[in-house]
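RETRY 2/3 - previous attempt timed out on the joint model. Re-submitting the same 575-residue input unchanged.
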Amino acid sequence: MQKQAIFQSKLLPYALVAPQLAIVLIFFYWPALQAVIQSFLLQDAFGLSTSFVWFDNYIELFKDPAYFEAVVRTFFFSFAIAISSLSFALLLAVMADKPLRGSMLYRTLLIWPYAVAPPVVGVLWIFMLHPSLGVISRYLRAAGIDWNPLLDGNQAAGLIILAAAWKQISYNFLFFLAGLQAIPKSVFEAAAIDGARPMRRFWTVTFPLLSPTIFFLLVVNIVYAFFDTFGIIDTMTRGGPGTSTVTLVYKVYSDGLLGGNLGSSAAQSVVLMIMVIVLTGIQFRFVERKVTY
Amino acid sequence: MVEDEGIRRYVAHFILWIGIAIVAFPVYIAIIASTQDNALIANGQMSLLPGGHFFEVYYQTIFVGTSGSTREPVGNMMLNSLVMALAIAIGKIAISIISAYAIVYFRFPFRMSIFWIIFITLMLPVEVRIYPTYKIVADLHMLDSYAGLALPLIASATATLLFRQFFMTVPDELLEASRIDGAGPLRFFWDTLLPLSRTNMAALFVILFILGWNQYLWPLLITTRDDMQTIQVGIRKMITTTDALTEWPIVMATAVLAMLPPVFVVVAMQKLFVRGLVETEK
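RETRY 2/3 succeeded.
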C-alpha cells in the first residue's frame, strides 16, 4: 500500500529519519553485531590475543549441563506462567463479559496490576511468602508445610511462577474481554436455542471463536516470561537457591557480571536473539488473523 | 443472555470479587506493612490492620532513605525514574513520528530498506544485547547519566509502525488542500498531521510512560552512583541478603511509591491506556 499524494524533496526525508536511524544503528545494530562477532572469538586468559574459533563457543555452551538446565527451566517457567495466568484471566473475563451491574468497575479493579513493575512484584510476593516473616508463610507452617523458598529450589520456582502469573493476569484479562466482546451475541443465542447448556456453549462456541486471541496471548506470555521475569527473579531469589531459578536472560546477566568468558556470554546472547526472532515471527504470522477489536 | 441468569449472575459477581481480592491482596499487605514498626514485622508478627507509623515511615522514605543499605532518599529516585520515563516516552514518540512521516509521505532511495532497518529492531530487545550496549554507552561516557539511561531504549519500531499505519488512513485530499494553501511538507506536518495524531500520541504516551517507569535491567547495569538510581533499582538494593538488616516498612513504602505513578496513569487514563495497549500489540 502506498500513498498517492506525496511531497517532493531530496534531503528532508533523510533528515526526518536520521535521528531514529542513528539511535538504531548505534544502540541496536552495533551491539548486536558485536555480540555476533564476539561469539566466534576466543580470548586468552590475559585478554591479550583473540582468535577466531568458529562455533567452538556454541559447542561449549550446548555441552554445558548448566546451560541446558537453564533452557529447560526457561521453557518450563514460560508455559507454567502462561497457562496459569491465561486460564485464570479467561475465567475472570468470561464472568466480566456477562451483563453485570458495575462491570466497568470490575474492569478497572482488575487491570491496574499491569502497571506494577516486575521488581516491585518480586518484592511484594517475597514479603508475603518470606520464610521467617511472611504473613502467608505463618499459615503454611501452621498447616504443616515446611515452607522455605530461600532454601528449597522447587518452592522458589513455584513462587516465581506464581508472582509472574499474578502480574500477567490483568493484561490477559483485558485482551480476553476484548476478544469476547467481539463475538456476536447471536452466536450464543443460536447455540442456546439448539439446547446447549452454558458449559457446553463455552467449550463448543466461545472457546473456538476465541482461539486466535488465546494463541496470540500464549505467544505474548511466553515472550513476557522469557524477558520480563528478570526483575521478579532478581528481587526474589537472585537465581537461587543454587541455580534453581536461573533463566536464560538471568544467566546472560549473571555470567556477564562475573566477567568471565566473553565468547560464551556473547554466544548466549546470540541464541536468545534467535529465539526472539522465532517468537516474533510466529507472533506476526498470527497477528494478521487475530480477532479485530 | 438467554436463560434466566439470576443465580449465575451472583456466581459471576462472586468470582470477580475473588479475582479482585487476589489481585489486590499483595498490594494491601504492602500498604499495611508500610505503616508498621520494623521490629514487629521482623519478628513475623505483622498485623493485618494499619499501624500508626504512616507519616514517620513515608517521611523517612521520601526524604532520608534507609539508614543501612542505600542512604538515598526515595524522592530523588522517583525524580530519576520520572526523568527517564518522560525522556523515553517523549523521545520515542518524537523520533518515530517524524521517521514514519518521511516513510509515508516521501519517495526517496532506500526508503524501504530504512523501514526494514527500523522494523527489525523489534527483534533486538535490550536483554539480548546488554553487555555490548553497556560497552558502547561506557565508551561514549554516558554511564550514570540520563542520556545513558534513556537513549538506548528510545528507538521503537512499534511506534513507527503505529504512526505509519495511522498516516496511511489520512485522506490524500488533506494534503492536496494544504498544498493549494501553499503549505510545504513541514507546515503540513505541523498544522495538519500532528493535530490529527493527538489521540494516538496520547495513547502511546500512556503505555510508553509505564514501560519507561518500570525499566529495570538497563538502569541496574548502567547506574553505579546512588544518586542516579531509579526507584526500581533502589528497591532491590534495599533488600539486603542478611534479612535482619532489611528495613521492611521502608521497602514497602518504596514499593507503594514505585507503583503509584503508573497505576494512577492506568486508572485515570483508562480509555487511552486500553487503546494504547491494543494498538501497540497490533
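Chain A touches chain B through 102 residues (CB under 8 Å). Closing ticket.
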